[in-house]
Amino acid sequence: MEGYEVITSDEQNAGRVVEVKGENLIVEHGLLRKTRHAVPKVFADTNASEQVVRLSVSSELLEASPKLEDGSVDERAVAQHYGLAAGEPAPETQGYGELTPDDPALSAEQEERRTGVEPAPARRARIREGESEAGPHGRQIIPADPHEGP
User: Fold this and answer.
1) Euclidean distance between CA atoms 7 and 107, whole angstroms
2) Which residue of 8, 19, 80, 103 is most buried, as measured by CB atoms within 10 A?
3) Per-residue pLDDT tens for 46-60?
4) Distance of CA 3 to the CA centre of its chain
5) Measured on CA atoms in the order 136, 142, 146, 150, is the torsion positive or negative?
6) CA-CA distances (angstroms) from residue 140 to 91, 109, 123, 136?
7) Among the listed residues 92, 118, 117, 88, the one whose alpha carbon sits nearest the alpha carbon of residue 105
8) For residue 67, what is the DSSP state?
9) Extended strands (E) in 22-128
10) 125 has a pLDDT exceeding 50
11) Core vs surface per residue 50-86: b (16+ CB within 10 A) or e
């Protein structure tokens, strides 16, 4: 792939592939002030007959990615920039179903408990047991149709 032209998803010429390091392509761009950026291979589709690598990311995202310093690639920073799982530390639940208080994957019931609101199942149980009034009985929920007769 070295020497292949790189085209982004917005059809911009992003430069050339100068080398492959691990799971990343190193793309060099610029005439006088050349910059090098890493892009994960998962975002690249190679066409060997045309010697072109097409990326599924925009030129803006590629240019905003971490620049290579002294030829070394910070794989975690690159993965984090492109939103890949390798860029994040291990999740706090570790797959055992234990949630942390600030976990965005809380259920509605857990969120109600956290904020001090009585969860809906507890409210329904209290109403069933007669400890609370369910609300006005016989109240029409759906508005009357103005086209219906009296």
Assistant:
1) 42
2) 8
3) 888 888 999 888 888
4) 31
5) negative
6) 48, 28, 22, 10
7) 92
8) B
9) 24-29, 35-40, 44-47, 52-55
10) yes
11) eebbbbebebebbeebeebeeeebebeebbbbbebee
Q: What 3-state class would DSSP assign to 61?
A: helix
Residues belonging to the chain: 150
Name the residue type at position 44: A
Q: Model pTM? A: 0.55
- Rounded to whole angstroms, what are the CA distances from 88 to 6, 18, 52, 67, 74? 27, 27, 31, 19, 13
Tokens linked to 93: 């639940």
- According to the 3-state scheme, what is the secondary structure of 93-116? CCCCCCCCCCCCCCCHHHHHHHHC
Tokens 């691990």 sit on residue: 22
> What per-residue confidence (pLDDT) applies to 138?
47
Closest among 52, 76, 79, 62 to 28, alpha carbons compared: 62
What distance, in Å, lies between the first and last C-alpha atoms of the chain?
A: 79
Tell me the pLDDT tens digit for each residue of 85-118. 665 666 555 555 665 555 556 667 777 777 788 8
